[in-house]
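[job 4471] stage=fold_predict status=RUNNING
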Amino acid sequence: MLTQTEAMRTVGVEEEMLLVNIQDGRAHSVQGQLALRSSALHPDAPDRTHAGTASDDVDGAVEGEFQQQQLETHTPPVLRMSELEEQVRHWRAEAARAARRADCRVAALATSPLPVGPTPVAGERYAWIRERFQFIARQQLACGLHIHVSVESDEEGVGVLDRIRGWLPVLLALSSNSPFTEGEDTGFQSWRTQMMGAWPSSGPTELFGSAEAYHRLIHDLTESKVLLDEGMVYFDARLSHHYPTVEIRVADVCSRVEDTVLIAGLARSVVETAAAEWAAGTPAPAVPSALVRLATFQASRFGMGGALLDPVTSRPRPAWEVVDSLLEWIGPALDDAGDRESVREALHVIRQDGTGADLQRATLERTGQLVDVVAQAVRTTAAQD
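[job 4471] inference complete, writing C-alpha cells
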C-alpha cells in the first residue's frame, strides 16, 4: 500500500528572469555566458512510462535563455511545497550571485518596464529562429513560470491536458506580472501573454482525446518546417519532451517567491484532479479553443481586478468567484497534499495586496519612476522586502 508521500505527484518549476543594469534598471546585455553550474537540468530524455520522483537524477540549475538579458532557473522535482519554496529561494540566490559576477542584478519581471533592445544569444538554433521569425524573435523579451507536474504516462498526461484547459487562465490571472513594456503602460496585467501570442504555436489547444492524437499533432507541427523542433511548441500546457511531466506554461514569472509556490501548488492539484477524472472516465469539457483563448485574453487584460470567464459556462464572473470555483474543484487534491492552508494564506495575500502587476502599478503611482518599479522587483526577487 502506497503512503501519502509515495502517492503524491512531484512538482518542479522553471523561472525565467531579467538581468538588469545596476545603474539604470534597464535590462542588461551580458556578452557570453554567466558562470553557470555544471549540472544541467535537461539530461537525456528519460523513459516517460513512469512518474518522476524526488530522487530522480534531476539537478537544479541556472542557465542562459533566448536573449542575453535573460536567465532561467530550474528546481529539482520535490514532493512538498515547503521544499519547493526552499529550492526556489536557493536557485534565485544562485542566479543573483551569477548576475553580480556580470555586474548586474536579477528581476523576476515578465516583461521589461524600461526600453531595451534585446540582444540574442549566439548559437545555430537561435539564429534559425531569428531568421525565420524576424521581429517576433527580435522583440521577444518575456519571462514565464513553467511548472512541471509528474504523470504516470503520456495517456494520463493528455487526459490531464484535455481537462485543465479552461482553468489555466485562472492561474494566469493570479500570476499576472507584466503591465509595462518598453516604457509604456500596456493596459494589460499580463502583456507577456500577448507577446507570446505572436508565436504560431502558442496558446490553448483543442481536445486531443489520446496520446496518439497529441503526438501526431506535434509531429505535424514540426514536419511543417514552420517550427524548428518540438521545443518550439509553446502551448499553454504540454507534455514535457524531457521529463515524465505535464508542463504548465501559461503563468507569468512571479516577483514574490510565495506567488511562485502558490501557482505551483494550485497546478499540482489541478493536474491531480484532472487525472482522477480521466481515470474515472469523466468526459473532458468540450469547450472550443476559441472560447479558451477569449478566457486567456480576459485574464491577461484584467488579471484579478475584473471578471474572468467561468471555465464551465464561458460567461463573465467576478475573478475571485472563479477562484472559489477552482478551489471547490481541486479541494480534495489540496487536502490530500496537505496544501489547502498554505494556498488559502497565499491567496489571501494576493487578495489583500494585489498581484505582481498590481504591485508594479502601485510602485509607479507612488514614485512616478519606472526605474523604481525595476528596483522594487530586484529587491522582491531576492526576498529583501
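[job 4471] summary: The first strand starts at residue 11 and ends at 21.
[job 4471] exit 0
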